[in-house]
Amino acid sequence: MKKGAFIKQIVIYGLILLASSLIANLANKLWPAFPMPTPLIGMIMLYLLLTFRVVKLEQVAGVSNFFVQFISLIFIPSGIALVTKLDVLKAEGVQIVIVIIVSTLMLLLFTAGIAWILIQVKEWLAARRSSNQMEVEED
Question: Quick one: CA torsion of 15, 17, 20, 26, rounded to 10 degrees?
């Protein structure tokens, strides 16, 4: 990859991170009871930018692949923080595991439900289009 293209990709990611940080701070001031995680906002922004073709995949693929190579390093601070809280895990470990299992199941069910609804809507729209085309052909 060319050095200029890599720098351009870093600038795109930097702007997304800056914008997501500003949005998270604004959301925190408007609604302090519901903190918005900056990385989540950044991922949503990147998804929307890619979906609406504001940013092309080629413009961010190189840096994305670079970051994926080092993704295991991101989890080291979490692991260290977990080890420092072993007393909390010992006291409330069962409740934490139950919450993780229940929330994961709820997330899976919610995702499956939304996917099912979207499939039904897509099939309904396809059936409606085909019936409209049949009516036009009959006329």
Answer: -90
